[in-house]
Amino acid sequence: MTTYISGDDLAKLVRDPSKKPKVDYLIVDVRDEDYRGGHIKGSINVPAHEIQQKARSIAEEYKAVPLIVFHCALSQVRGPKSARIYRETVEDTLVTAKSGDPLFDQQVNVLRGGFNSWLYRFKDTEPGLITAYDATVPRDDF
């Protein structure tokens, strides 16, 4: 089952100076070329076609991060599929994990509406939530 997080709830985390990306939360942007046209502050880019190969290393590197949020442009296909692949990889890892492994408690969410909704919601009101925005880079329609 896919669990979603709203843009407003994610923005609260990103804005919170006591919360650190890659420590308190991890945002995984699975878009391809359009990532260079802007992305959520503090996110990492792992294109959807690489998730299968990189899920285990992401889980290992960020195992202590309590919340992982995946998204693509609209979070309709690539974002939810990447979250599912990651979650399945984590579940496979947990079969042999020791009790107390932080992966047991890690939440995996998908950003509702994806980056396009985030951009529409925040680009004019809170541009600091968007890094490297470039309006000339083609993206999926809102």
From TrEMBL:
Domain Rhodanese per the UniProt entry, residue ranges: 21-127
Any single Gene Ontology cellular-component annotation: cytoplasm
Pfam families recorded: Rhodanese (PF00581)
GO molecular function: protein tyrosine phosphatase activity
Classification via SUPFAM superfamilies: Rhodanese/Cell cycle control phosphatase
Keyword Mitochondrion part of the UniProt annotation: no
InterPro entries linked: Rhodanese-like_dom (IPR001763), Rhodanese-like_dom_sf (IPR036873)
Membrane-spanning ranges: none
Keywords in alphabetical order: Hydrolase
Enzyme Commission code: 3.1.3.48
Record's protein name: Cdc25 phosphatase Ibp1
Organism whose genome encodes this protein: Coemansia erecta
